[in-house]
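Let us work through a complete example step by step.
Step 1: write down the sequence.
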Amino acid sequence: MSEINWSHDGRRITLPVRILRADNPFDLTFLDAVALVDIGATVSGIDQSIAEKLGLESLGKRPLQSAQGLGHTERYMFRIGLMPDGSDQASLPFIFDACYGFSLTGSEHFTALIGMDILRQCDFAIDRQSRCRLVFG
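Step 2: predict the structure and record it as tokens.
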């Protein structure tokens, strides 16, 4: 099992991730992103700019219920990769199976969102001192 340990800022829980195309499992081309960990989200999401830079094909708009209400947003297939503690930039990330996720609208604090589709494959813990731990693999 691999793990990531970090501290959150007291307002939101974010961590670095890598976003990859889902159409070819041998294509390890990625974009770095900062992901919000959201236990209230059913599915994961990526910023529209990431989808465009990776050349992801839209799967159409679908309804999305969020804290801001009901809206319609583009859907994409993508993969999320996590770099375990102790790995260097030359290491390969742990890559989860493809997600059927949604397009985020611009946030200045994060460019991806990790929802329960990914978190249910992990052990996630947070303590009173703002330390977070994510175990996966």
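Step 3: interpret the result. The CA atoms of residues 54 and 101 lie 14 Å apart.
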